[in-house]
Amino acid sequence: MFFCVAIGVLISSSLAVTRELSLYEAVSGGQARLPCNVTAPSVDDSVSLVLWYRSDINAPIFSVDCRHGPLENSQHFPSDYLGDRGTFDLSTQPALFIIDPVLPEDEEEYRCRIDYRRARTFNVRMRLQIITPPTRIVITDQNSQRLRNVIGPYNEGSRVVLRCIAEGGKPPPAVTWWRNSMLIDNRYTEIGNNKVENQLFLDISRQDFKMSLMCQASNTNLTSPNNVTVNVDMNLKPLDVHIIHTEQHFSAGQHASVQCRTAGSRPAAHVSWFKDGQLMNGSKDVADLKGLWTISTLEFTPCSSDNGKYLSCHAINPAFPNFTRKDSWNIDVYFKPEAFISLKLSHPSGKLHEGDDVFLECRSHSNPGITEILWYFNRDLLLNRTAAGILIKNQTLEIKNVKRRHSGNYVCSAENVEGRGNSDEFKLKIKYPSTARLSFHPYEKQVDGSHSDEISEFQNRFNTKDLANKSGDCLTTEDNPTFQYPDPYYPRLKTPPAAVRWRVTAVSHPPEQEDIIRTKDLTWEIKDEEFRMNNENTKPFISTSSYPQVCHQDEYKMSTPV
Q1: Contact 276/310 with Cβ under 8 angstroms?
Q2: pLDDT tens across 168-213, in order?
Q3: Nearest-angstrom CA–CA distance, 478 and 549
């Protein structure tokens, strides 16, 4: 291949005709083709001799001798300079002087001399320019680290700086950047040492993932340009995140599973689960081989307190720590009712007395709503009994004109589609006037200081005194408490005991009304006149006319609720 450029110089001679000087290019290592028209100027004329000269060599470098025959049968004589690299092709029009392979030192001015048998000698001058392609092309980053094949990964949205350096080449090559066969940068600079550089600044986006960048260095159209290609790898942000759930609601205490799918991240995104901002554990991730999507499965057991909370799935590419793509879902958790009882009174005093109206309200927390409420009293089902003052309406139990028999444990039971939940027992206490009772338990103290064990057998066999409605709730001598020795003991009673100790116990009735129960021992010396026989049954008894006053409020600190 060759390329001709007319340079507009005309050389004349009185002995020969010379055409204007032309420029021909050849690539080092290829072929140089220099044309020379050997057609005779007239039909009665013919070529006798063709000589090729190089301007810096006096002798011909190639000769075609046709003096003894037609041109087609001529003899060809290359010089030692060319050897077998030089040929003259007469089969083309015009004929071509071929140097193959052409070397850089072949660059020079050449002349083709044509001697005709009758016409004047004809000279054609031309210049051969040898082009040397670049010897190497190197792509580096901005830190001069060489890059090959796949480069990166670079973060989406970042700026990439690439340097393409072409070494060698005559003339200096044009260094250009191409993207997918499209020219994107043709600005290059000679940087010395026979090098040319083109520095590319490229702001890359998601669409540039896997793009092909080619650096091309060319200083001739005679051959294909030298080039180096790299493919850009990138870190990509997650494009979307979507929570996948087949159930519209969960049931508290039952195993639940939910999935989150994220796509578009490279490498595969890390998926985290949060419940109202609190990190959850127990998820498993599966990513595709190319890392463009990830499916995370979360398994957990919801509880009633999770109802209404936000379950969120966060997708993060570690290359973008400050960027998160997320999806949230307001979870609906069904759970059986959690019930409790609250008390309301018909008056603001805060105390519950006989005759008051009582309102017990069954409050509950449930999802979905309550379908039925039942009431229990001391484990027995309560029903509406208007005549007895028991009214059940919605979640409220009303007891009119409450009595002491209404004291006890109440439970409300609430039901929804998830099941039934019972409240804790609510103990209802009704305050009413109580009856206090003093019990006297005697035991004997002998003169010698010893105690008689037998007397304990007669415990609870003596008079007791109800003190209800007594002024001051006191036991006085008017009550004349008397201890009478029973039959089994009477025969053994030889002498009056020196003293009798009375154990006095204050007990309220009924027992659940007790606030304080105390016991106090009282001792009286027994005088002879106080120990006497009962005329009715001739059994001894002790009359305590000197018995001191005993008040259960003062002595025993016992309060009687009203």
Answers
A1: yes
A2: 999 999 999 999 889 999 999 999 999 999 999 999 999 999 999 9
A3: 9
